[in-house]
Design a protein that fits this description.
With about 260 residues, the protein is of the alpha/beta class. It contains eleven helices and nine strands. The strands form two sheets. Strands 3-2-1-4-5-9-8 form a seven-stranded mixed beta sheet, sandwiched between helices. A two-stranded antiparallel sheet has the order 6-7. It starts with 6 loop residues before the first strand and ends with a helix.
């Protein structure tokens, strides 16, 4: 049966993803008339990092905490009937999908996505079909680890990309390590280092503006930074997500009309 709306598949880990990096994208897609189907490791609903949703960062909350508009979008997303009925990774079918999106997150639960061989196979299939693929922050790591069997290389080999930069990752860790330990260090190797290692050239990793302070917003998209290479679009951190949502939505709509 054909669907009346385009559908984008969003891969979530079992827990601990970033609410901004998922819900702001979801919000942009849904407002454009695009359904978002979720997929999780076991087909159970997956909830965002509780520190970013509820607990905060004490005196650093104004800098590190999820912004109110993004929290509002996350609550609307978690009330969506499709959110309550995700597909298990191993049951995903991309035949009716118009795109794939992978949010990030740095708390340890995000490893259930990044280390999933099945999720990596989904990413390989999406690139092979030339679907619009979007990823942000640690979500780009899934793509870096997704090996195309036709080439033996990552699906990112030969493409330009951004991801969580070393400076952003280490700044968050330095600000919080005395009481949160390695909360901001998902892996010993930084995201930038692991992603850059699979690219055809180190020049294919784009860091964006050197000093990243202000987050973007619906009225200030230019504050965000994204990198597009064909049907692949990437961002660095939550502060890029309004721009990322707008540009990714345009990619999906263009693909659905083609």
């Amino acid at each position: 049966m054909s669907r009346s709306k385009p559908v984008v598949l969003m891969l979530l880990p079992a827990l601990d993803y970033d609410p901004t990096e998922s819900a702001v994208i979801w919000d942009g897609l849904v407002k454009a008339g695009i359904d978002v189907q979720f997929a999780t490791p076991d087909g159970e609903p997956a909830y965002a990092d509780s520190r970013l949703v509820n607990e905060g960062f004490s005196v650093l909350s104004p800098v590190l905490m999820t912004k109110p508009d993004s929290l509002s979008a996350y609550r609307r997303m978690s009330d969506d009937p499709l959110f309550a009925k995700p597909t298990a990774y191993d049951a995903v079918n991309l035949d009716d999908a118009e795109g794939l999106f992978i949010p990030g997150g740095h708390a340890k639960g995000v490893r259930t996505l990044l280390e999933s061989g099945v999720a990596q196979q989904i990413a390989v299939s999406a690139f092979a079909r030339d679907l619009p693929v979007g990823a942000v922050c640690h979500g780009v790591l899934l793509l870096a680890r997704s090996i195309d069997p036709a080439t033996g290389q990552s699906v990112l080999h030969g493409r330009r990309t951004t991801a969580l930069t070393e400076s952003l990752e280490l700044t968050g860790w330095q600000l919080t390590r005395l009481w949160l330990g390695d909360y901001y260090r998902t892996y010993p190797t930084t995201v930038e280092a692991e992603v850059t290692a699979v690219l055809a050239s180190t020049r294919d990793f784009e860091r964006g503006p050197r000093f990243t302070v202000l987050r973007d917003s619906p009225n200030h998209l230019a504050r965000g930074f994204t990198v597009r290479d064909g049907n692949y679009l990437s961002g660095r951190w939550p502060g890029d997500c309004h721009r990322l949502a707008a540009e990714y939505t345009d990619l999906v709509l263009a693909h659905s009309r083609s």
